[in-house]
Amino acid sequence: MNNAHILAVLLTFIIYLLLAVAYFGWGKMTTSLLGLGRQEDDLVTPFIWIGWAFTLFIFQLTHFALPLTAFVVIPVLIIGVASAIPGVIASFRSHTIRTSKVLMVLSGIISVVLLVSFWVASRSMLTPENYDSGLYHFNKIRWINSFPVVPGLGNLHGRLAFNQSFFTYVAALNFFPFFGRGYSIANSFLYLLANATFIDLLRPVFKRPSLLVEDHPFKYTSIIIAFPILWYLSISGCNLSSPSPDFASIVLQLTMIIILAQGIGEYTTKQANQNFKVVLLGILATTAVTVKLSNLAFSAVIMSFVILYAIKPHAKKTVFRTMVLSAMMMLVWCVQGFILSGAPLYPSTIGYLPVDWAVPVEKVISEAKFICSSARQPDGVYWKDIPDNWNWFFPWLSSLLINKLRVVIPLSAAVFFLIATLIISRFRRNYRTQYLEWAVLLPVIIGLIYWFLTAPSIRFSHALFVIMPLCSILLFLSSLQNIINRKIFCVVICVILIVLYSGFAGLIVKNREAVKSISLSGWHPIKEVPLDRKITLSGLTVYTVKNPGEDQCWDSILPSTPFFDAYLSLRNPNNMPSGFKMIREEGSQYKK
After folding, report:
1. Distance (Å, rounded) from C-alpha 193 to C-alpha 135?
2. At a CB cut-off of 8 Å and minimum separation 6, what does 532 contact?
3. Please, which residues have CB within 8 angstroms of residue 246's CB and are 6 or more apart in sequence?
4. What whole-number distance in Å separates Cα of residue 297 and Cα of residue 304?
5. Residues 6+ apart with CB under 8 A from 381
6. For position 246, what pLDDT does the model report?
7. Nearest to residue 73, comparing CAs of 197, 170, 154?
8. Which of 74, 83, 90, 122 has its CA 20 to 30 A from that of 526?
């Protein structure tokens, strides 16, 4: 460790704190706008999530007219900080430390938090290794920092038309042109926020541990089960150091399922007022779709719970306002997608219009089929060479089942606990099926069906496979709770947790080199590749990868693409923000 690393970590901590306070302030303002008043004032992190989603919406709106530079981002964060200050002061006053014992406990917690945050910040400073980050993530972020939404950007590189709001979030954290390390902050902040959220929701248990046995398992046991899942995901791969929306999707799905489970647990125990959780779930579900389209089915089921909650008379206004805000967020996202490619849901052709900047429809279809085929077939097989049949299924299944940690073990555990739950339910006297409890499986099941039908690659499943056993264990515990005494129920919970955490400890030992893999010298450099300068038929200068066989431009000069097309043209010569188009022949598709 050197001085550069210490300064980098301190700066990262300052940004984490700035974001948390600013998002908290915006979360407070958003919930007031939605008419929630002072509900859930004892919680902090849910407001941060709402503020994060709302500021992301603000940045997407702003990006229609302006590039996301520090001069746009900082004023938005300052407004959030100013709004948060009264709440922060009131919180400190209401949690005055009165005893030395409490001070010691608080000091211990702060020490652990700082240690974990140091590890997360240091790991996020490693060189980004995610393949898609080199292919298009960094280039898309640079476009957002440099120009307003560029019409037809997908003509330069099809992946640049992927309308993922996560890159808007990363670009905002670059504080362009002063900082440029938003890729390191983005996922690491969301990861720490998810951990903080689980701790925040567990606060009643810290005061009264017996709640784990006395209360509904969905409320608190769910969180304790979720912790090792979240921790495991942080040591697998290069998630924290890459600007990948896949990891953000994992964090969002896991957070949403925990909040949903808590809401179901509270609702079934007659805590009928779930207005705050409904707002939180509605906003997060909508944002998750804009972060990555593969979250669509999972989020749609979550949103269904939000809509169904409107049957409660006291909830109609809250649900209506949440749906209006969600609709606005989706509209802005779809319009942005249309500007980028002519297709609001690119690479889907739904809503496609052949405007002059639109990506040619056959290229949109090709992109969609490539994603689907590459998820089903080994690398190197072009989608047109794959027969339109189910011959891919068994080779795909075999390759899927090789992954024991992400697929085989979670599915086996899920099946075991579901069968055990059904057996217990079958032989319980006077048992009435709790359909609402079983509904916790719906986001996972519908999500997996959608995943299988669209792009069944393990990375596109996000957290679905690991959420399945979590939900199954909760159903199992719920079926047991009222037929055995508390001591035995406590033993059952302890056995499950011991097995779960000992398994995680084994993974830590097995992957100790990955745990040790952190930066001790500040931010490692982003990869660079040599570029060639080429001229299209219209006279447009484009930079492309020089070495044959490479297709990653990383954070290179604009406009760059690994796939040079001589028929690319600016809509308005010498004006890059005007956008791109393909030279067309009269009465035909684009020329190539």
Report:
1. 28
2. 543, 544, 545, 546
3. 239, 292, 459, 460, 462
4. 11
5. 373, 374
6. 94
7. 170
8. 74
Of 417, 555, 559, 553, give the one whose Cα is nearest residue 496.
417
- The reported pLDDT for the residue numbered 91 is 63
C-alpha 318/C-alpha 33 separation (Å) is: 10
- Pairing label, strands 580-582, 541-545: unpaired
Q: Helix/strand/coil (H, E, C) string of 366-386?
A: HHHHHHHHHHHCCCCCCHHHC
Parallel, antiparallel, or unpaired for β 541-545 and 531-535? antiparallel
Report pLDDT for 187.
96
**pLDDT at residue 346 in the model:** 94
Q: At which residue do the structure tokens 């069906």 appear?
A: 449
Q: Residues 382-417: pLDDT tens digits?
A: 555 555 678 888 888 998 999 888 899 999 999 999
Pick out the chain residues at pLDDT < 50.
585-592
Report which of 283, 293, 297 is spatially closest to residue 326, judged by C-alpha positions: 283
* pLDDT value for 310: 84
What pLDDT, on a 0 to 100 scale, did the predictor assign at position 381?
57
Q: How is residue 590 annotated by DSSP? A: B
Domain boundaries, the chain: 3-372, 393-516, 531-582
Q: Would you call the peptide bond into 347 cis, given omega within 30 degrees of 0 as the criterion?
A: yes
Question: 465: which 2 tokens?
Answer: 């496979």
Interval 349-371: pLDDT, tens:
999 999 999 999 999 998 988 88
Buried b (16+ CB within 10 A) or exposed e, 443-468: bbebbbebbeebbbbbbbbbbbbbbb
**Nearest-angstrom CA–CA distance, 151 and 577:** 8
